[in-house]
Design brief:
By secondary structure, the protein is α/β, with parallel strands linked by helices. The chain has 13 helices and 16 strands. The two termini are 19 Å apart.
């Protein structure tokens, strides 16, 4: 923190309009008595952040970023359970736990959950792309801060939220030991799916267009990794499954072609889960008799599940999956536009991109 014209200021990447990020000084958020201020040490760049920056989804100005890990810098006078200096993961939304959606365990449909309240200024929008983020009372009191154990890095801890999102999908699809799961797309999310499927005793088959990502999928435990454009793809997947087809397909890319392949490759009585968000204008024609005669279940899975928060933290903190292997780029907050560009047009070696508000906190950048 530093002074500017008497006010305490910090650096942040402010969304000023479509494809317009401005690296500027903004006031450090002021705390109410029941709030906590966290110094951001690392924040993951998520596909949802990229969409919010590239498309007119939200009115500017805003500060995005939500896969946040850092250190408590200040606590309000009424905060009892948290102290300055504790290392924490910040979870940017927590459900109310008593609406009709929460009582049905549809936590991500809860209005309180959807109304993001962590902020680095302007309309609350996550706030991780800044030096400090304010955690409001509802998040502080209801499980939205997780202490990072000794021996776990900030980088590893920043994966708790994306792990929860993927874990929710794997649980919703009811992946069982011994089942075969097709994962379409071997980017950071698809690779996390590969590791989680293996962790829960399943066999993963990955598809992608980039050979290096297929290689990475095999390194992380995929039984097979196939090019999505291979004309023999369906035949190869049936060969790998004794002619049956996969039990479940997890669609980790918003591709109509991937969905068509999923229909061809998923067994009768199997499941297809939509994880990636498609552009709103996309419509996929489907003959309903395919679902009726083959008893295919179509499922959607959006965001995280409060119920899986402890398990997600356990999986990351106890290294039950290797999140370190997903990190390819470490970029300073000042260069966030470059990070977005790299994510949109990945090199063969681009996987997960992590952002550092303070380059001196990252040995890779100093």
């Amino acid at each position: 923190m530093h002074s500017r014209e008497g006010a305490i200021a910090m650096k942040a990447q402010v969304f000023r309009g479509v494809k317009q990020l401005s690296y500027e000084d903004v006031p450090v958020p002021e705390l109410a008595e029941d709030e906590v201020l966290v110094q951001v040490r690392v924040v993951g760049l998520c596909q949802s952040d990229i969409k919010k920056i590239l498309y007119p989804l939200y009115e500017p100005p805003r500060i995005f970023g939500h896969e946040t890990a850092g250190v408590i810098a200040q606590v309000g006078s009424a905060v009892r359970d948290w102290q300055v200096g504790q290392r924490v993961v910040v979870l940017h939304h927590i459900p109310c736990m008593h609406c009709a959606y929460c009582l049905n365990e549809n936590y991500s449909m809860c209005d309180v959950y959807k109304n993001i309240s962590t902020t680095a200024g302007f309309a609350p929008s996550g706030g991780g792309f800044a030096e400090y983020v304010k955690v409001p009372s509802h998040i502080v009191q209801h499980g939205g801060l997780l202490e990072i154990p000794d021996g776990v890095t900030f980088e590893q801890a920043s994966f708790v939220e994306p792990t929860n999102c993927c874990l929710k999908a794997v649980k919703k699809a009811q992946v069982q030991p011994g089942q075969t799961v097709l994962v379409t797309g071997a980017g950071p999310i698809g690779l996390m799916f590969v590791m989680l499927v293996k962790y829960f005793g399943g066999r993963a088959i990955a598809t992608d267009l980039i050979p290096s990502r297929l290689e990475k999928a095999k390194q992380l435990g995929a039984e097979a990794a196939l090019n999505a454009t291979d004309p023999e793809l369906t035949a190869k997947i049936h060969d790998l499954t004794n002619g049956l087809g996969v039990d479940t397909t997890l669609l980790a890319v918003p591709s109509a072609k991937a969905f068509t392949q999923a229909l061809d490759c998923t067994r009768k009585g199997g499941k297809i889960l939509f994880f990636a968000e498609f552009p709103d204008e996309v419509e996929i024609p489907i003959n309903p008799n395919i679902l009726y005669r083959r008893e295919i279940d179509l499922i959607g899975s959006y965001s995280s599940s409060f119920k899986l928060q402890a398990l997600s933290a356990d999986i990351v903190f106890n290294r039950r999956i290797d999140v370190d292997s997903l990190v390819s780029d470490r970029i300073s907050l000042q260069d966030l536009p470059l990070a977005v560009e790299r994510a949109v047009s990945p090199t063969p070696d681009t996987f997960k991109i992590l952002i550092y508000p303070n380059s001196s906190a990252n040995p890779h950048l100093s």
